[in-house]
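Re: folding output
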Amino acid sequence: MLKKIQRKKRIKLAQGKPNIKVGSFWIKNVIYIFVAFVFAVFLSYKIFDGSSTFDYLLKIKDQNSQIVELTDQLDKLNLEIELLEISLNKKDEDLQKLEEKNNDLQEEILFYEKIVGKRR
C-alpha cells in the first residue's frame, strides 16, 4: 500500500505543472545585479584608468578633424598649382611665338640691310 501511494505521488509530480511563486524577491535580485554592475563598471574605470582612454579617443577625433582640414588645404593648393602650370604653359607658348616673330623680323632687317646697306 505504501508503495502504491509513493508511486501515485511520483506520477502526480511528473505530470503536474511546476508551481513557482513570484513575489517581490525578483525585484531585489534585479536591484542587486544593477548595483553590482555599476560597481563593476566604476571599479574597471578606476583600475584601467578610463580617463586616459577617453582622452585618447578625443585626441583621435581631433586628429581626424585636422586630417580632414589638411586634405582640404592640400586639394586647394594642388588646384592652385595646376592653374599656375596652365598659365605658365600659355606664357611659354606666347614667348615662343614672340621669339619666332622676333627672329623673322631680324631676318627681314638683315635682308634689307644687305640690299640697302647698313645705315649708321
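--- second protein (sequence, then structure) ---
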Amino acid sequence: MRVPCLWVIAAGCALALLALLASMAAEGDQLIATVGKPAIVTVPPKPDSFTAGSSAPRVVVHVTGYQPPQQGSVRGVVKVQKPDGTEQEIGTFGVFPDTAFKADSSRSRAYSFALPKELLTGAVKLKVEIVPDRAQATGEGAQLEVGRAEIQ
C-alpha cells in the first residue's frame, strides 16, 4: 500500500515543479533591456483559460528594476512575435515616477496589454524595448529589468 502512495506524492511533486518552471522565464531569455538591446521574455501558454465567449486575453509584464537615462526620458515598447516571425506592437508604457528602483517579484510594477487571441497557439515571445521619448535624446544609461510576464 505504500508504493501507490509514494507514486501519488511523486506525481504531485513533479506537477508542482513543472508549474514552477513554467512560471519562470525560459532559459536564454534576456531580461534586461537597454537602448538598442531589448529584453526577451517567453510567456508560457494558457490555452485552457480562454473560450469563444471569454474576454480578450491580456499579457502582464512585471518590471522589477529601472534605471532612468542620464538625460531626458524613455518609454518601454512591448512587441509580440507572430507565428510568421514578424513582430506586432501591443503597447507602450512609461515608468512613473521616473526614478531608479529595484524590487523583488512581489513588489514589481505591472503593465498590462491586450493580446490578440490568434497569438495564443503556444508560448508567446515578447520583446520589451527602451526607446527615447524625443528624437534628440539618446536614452543613454537607461535600463529596464523584466522579472516575468504572464497571460491573464
